[in-house]
Amino acid sequence: MQRTSFSVFAENYINEEREALSNIAPFLKSAFTPTVFKSTGFPTEVYESDAELWKLIDSMHEARYHANLKMLGGLTNYEFELFKEVVHISISFGKILKHPIIPRNSLTRSLLSFRAINSFYEASSTKPSVFEIGPGSGYLALLCHLAGWKYTAMDSTGSLCQFQNSLWNHAGINVKFGDVSAEFSQIPWWKFVDLEIELPNSQIVVANHVIFEMTPLALSYSVQRLKEAGAEYLFSEGMGLSRYPTNIDIIKKTMVLIHNTVSTTKSQQVAVFQFKQSNLGKQSKHKVIYKKLYSMFSNFYHRYYYITAIKYFGIIYRKFFSKKNPLKAQVLDKRLNIPSIDVSEGQVSDWIHSLGFPTLTRDEEVIIYSRHTGHYW
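The chain above was modelled as a monomer; its predicted structure follows.
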């Protein structure tokens, strides 16, 4: 494993993005700007050197380790072996950055998605190909790589792109930034929006903690782009901060919910949507009923009063009979039952502590010192 020249990446990233912006529509530039991160003060620009990359080793999932393990219920032997390998990679990478730490929060969170995809394809003879929107600290990518899956990443946050690229290259993957033809690809947002560039075919889209944080245009554009690239399913173990909660309407319009756990503990806690083959000509039930009633009364003498009544009927129907948020519904797919557990939560924690490296991030230390119990942003 060789050390990556981070400053070279930063310079190339800045130059390539600046050059690409000259041909990108203003709406797209605005849509793919990480507005939520910028509004919270999260570092979004690439770093000039590697001096601050340590801040992203276990970022955005602070204090979630125990909750993650509880949702997982422990690990299978296969998951535990992959988990240990990624931990060792991360510690080695952290040593280069002079901040060795075990990314227990982000890594256990990534295992939720990895397990779901692995379970979904376990009975299949083919391996999944994954396209991840917003990989964060990049640990799901390492798990996919170690499992031998084809993987593609797209992120619009420069600092995270830089961290991901550095971590993945340190792991020996030899990532070529912007190469869409590779088995393991990292695509910048400006190439993702370029319709002249053919995206790699990916059956699975992973969108963790980004759906409610993407601008509506960015989400609509991404769904259409990935659908044209052959996407069949979208996996998400969290929608993200509710900056754009109405984005769920875009998901409802373009996909069908096939798995979502609300109350049971026997199924994996991840939402899975299947892409619709076509959205043309399809209407929700309340729109169909509304149009039929409208047609029935349209020729009556007192047309105004009847149509007004039908409009109010439509409002009442939508309020009481239509499902506004599919994530409140429980839909279970048997392929996503909790697998047989080999390694308990306690055994995972014991192994982590046996390594003798720090597990608390600097941000978690701040939370503990402050006795803070709310959201940390």
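The chain has two domains: 6-284+324-370, 285-318.
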